[in-house]
Amino acid sequence: MQLRRLTSRHAGFRLSALALAIAAAPVWAAEESAAGATEHVEVVGQAASMDKALKEQRRSDSVQSTVHADGVAQLPDENVAEAAQRLPGVSIERDQNEGRFVSVRGLGPDLNSVTINGTLVPAPESGRRAVALDVLPAELVQSLSVVKTLTPDMDANSLGGTIEVESLSAFDHDGLFYTLSGEASHDENTSENSPKFSGAISQRFSLGDGIDNFGVAAAYSWSDRDFGSDNVETGGGWDFAEGPRLEEAELRDYEISRERTGFGLNFDYRPDDYSSYYLRTLYSRYQDSETRNAAGVEFADPLAPGETGEAEGWRELKERKEIQTIRSYVLGGERLLGPWTLKGQVGYSRSSENTPNGLNATFEGNDDFEDVGFSSRSKPHLNIGDAFFAADSFSLDEVERSKSRTTDTEHNLKLDLARDYELSGHAAQVKFGGKLSRRDKDNDTDVWTYEDFDEHGLSDEQLAMGNFTTGSVDYGLGNFGPGLSAGRIESLLGGLDRDDFYDEEESRVNDYDMREDIDAAYLMHTLDIGDLRVIAGMRYERTRFEARGTGIRDGSFEGIDERNTYDHWLPGLHLRYQLGRNTQLRAAISHSVVRPTFGQLAPGFVIDGDEASFGNPNLSPLESRNFDLGIEHYLGRAGVVSAFLFYKDIDNFAYNTDLAGSGIWADFDEANTYANGDRADLWGLELAWSQKFDWLPAPWNGLLVGSNLTFTHSDASISGRDPETGRTLHRDIDLPNQSKRVGNLMLGWEDDRLSLRLSLNYKSDYLQEVAGIDDEDHDLYVDDQTFVDFSARYSLTRNLQLSFEAQNLTDEHYYVYSGHRSFNAQYEEYGPTYKLGLTLVNF
């Protein structure tokens, strides 16, 4: 028996399948021994969380990956986006080194969808569909799943995957559960320290004749983080016809404060074995305050490294407070009626972004600077005299003040009815239902542009930059000079009548109201034939879109009212075959419909002479036929190895383009807008392995390993007119925002008291923005990134835990290049962050 057991355990040492994406803090559950004198402690940490997630993945009818919170109701990372990046095929876009948007299988965030407790989350930002998941604190989340194949009963609005967020329920724990955490973090780049507090509580109660049939759960999180970054960028301003040579460069210093507040309150009622009802509520507020000092030059003639010449210089201050909120309310239930199961849900969610008082002030140099040059193409360093760093060299030229508010509201009603029955002796189910979704997105912007100050009685002495400076800028990439004070600039503007500076063009052109109504219905059948499960069905979606806004043509305003209606029939087929007790095959054919972003659909336009820029409300939605084939082998507790092939045949992807020289824009020098691409193909391989080595002798039995690697390749084709000859041109590109390689590696170790985790996240470079059809040298690419994080958690007692985290240990930077990796468009560095925390828990 011992030999057999040992052999079985060694058989578990193989490659595995799900992302080990996850790890969370260890917690204690104590039991009295039979003698009553010895305390038995069971760790609830990385392995327990992984095992629970893998069991959910294994049961799923879709290809999905899951992260579960551990016993202390915390995901293993700072926010939802950073937790998701540990999953197979998942990477994130970062903003100031914080995880923000989620990419799945190398595809851009706008091609995915996000749901909270089953209802779609609208996007706070004015131009996007992608939801910035850093708005959601990790403490409010019980589980996070990325569903990569869509069954007919699911919304068809994702190409990479649907990110499903589930919040805490009282039925996730037995009896009273609570946790309270405090944390302090230190930002190495700015030497700033920041606090964070969070907590969660749940309990069950007995109503009527029931026992523990009513549950209440609440969670709260607050943090206020101060940090910053240093930047040097060219914006892709390279003249490749002459060298290449650089046209301009800019230094930027960011000081940032981000405050997050989140609250969730959930109710569950299960009166009997046949019915359950729930109410899920969530509120999250994210306030981002940013001060950006900038100093730049524009060369009189483009220069190569080492050359010198004359240059105009400028200084700039941008200060703004941006407040994003998400509110989500979901009321639903389930009732068994004999062989029938009835499910219903009403959802309301509202996201908003409010920028109440943005300020952007520009100071021009009083004279040109001489003998100016630079060194390094990838990380330009300005070679310039001391006068560039002196306040008396600049005067106030223009100030733009703005305020804006965007709201995105989603109402939906969903009803599902399923009946279980036998078909020729096989278990079967027929399921049908529908969903009504009503979405409204609007943006209101007001802009005041202050310029020509001498015409308003201000003297040169009053406009001198020295009147607005405040100390030296702490800039890590070299000399910068004095910083600028927004308060002093506001004091100057306070003496002017702002109505005289209202910018009607900028204000009205950016305003819009877009409405998107989707009616959906589906029919789906599930059949179990021995070890084979077959799910086949059809989904129908009808979309009615309307956009209202304002355009300006050579100084005259025009109202815009565009409408578009389209429908889609979306068949789906899913197969799951049990090869053995622990091995299963999956195959799926599905269809997706991803609507263009709101920025691409925006109705406003500006036409000024022979230059034009405009959105395109008549863009067609992206359509994709998706094929998935894979195998999963489960390796006991917290272990799995998997491999999945996927292919996507895509039509109508959207990209930015210049239509000058074609059609009605034949006589224009610029006509920047968005168009549908001809077609695209994407295919890839997704590998994953996670393993708990509990069969090894101590101390190696505490070892955990998780890894995943996704390879993708895309071929996309775009077309346009050559502005010089008028000929139609075609160009092959990668899909925008698509990384070819995404990977994670995690090494963990835990015992009854200590939990350690070292994790690595890698994302290869990708095309960020397409330039003109004949100008691939100015395409913008984001360089590859590798982030290494470390965490340690130690249980001081069974209820009290000490934690330490170190993020970005390799001091990874953010780099965007133009055409070729040698040519800077943007370089930004952040430094590591360290955190120390204490958690009290009871469950």
Automatic annotation (TrEMBL):
Transmembrane segments: none annotated. Coiled coil: none annotated. It is found in: Cell outer membrane. Residues 350-809 form the TonB-dependent receptor-like beta-barrel domain. GO terms for cellular component: cell outer membrane. Keywords: Cell outer membrane, Membrane, Receptor, Signal, TonB box, Transmembrane, Transmembrane beta strand, Transport. Residues 1-29 form the signal peptide. Residues 59-162 form the TonB-dependent receptor plug domain. The keyword Transport applies. It is a multi-pass membrane protein. InterPro entries: Beta-barrel_TonB, Beta-barrel_TonB_sf, Plug_dom, Plug_dom_sf, TonB-dep_rcpt-like, TonB_rcpt_bac. Belongs to the TonB-dependent receptor family. NCBIfam families: TonB-Xanth-Caul. This is TonB-dependent outer membrane receptor protein. The lineage of its organism: Bacteria, Pseudomonadati, Pseudomonadota, Gammaproteobacteria, Pseudomonadales.
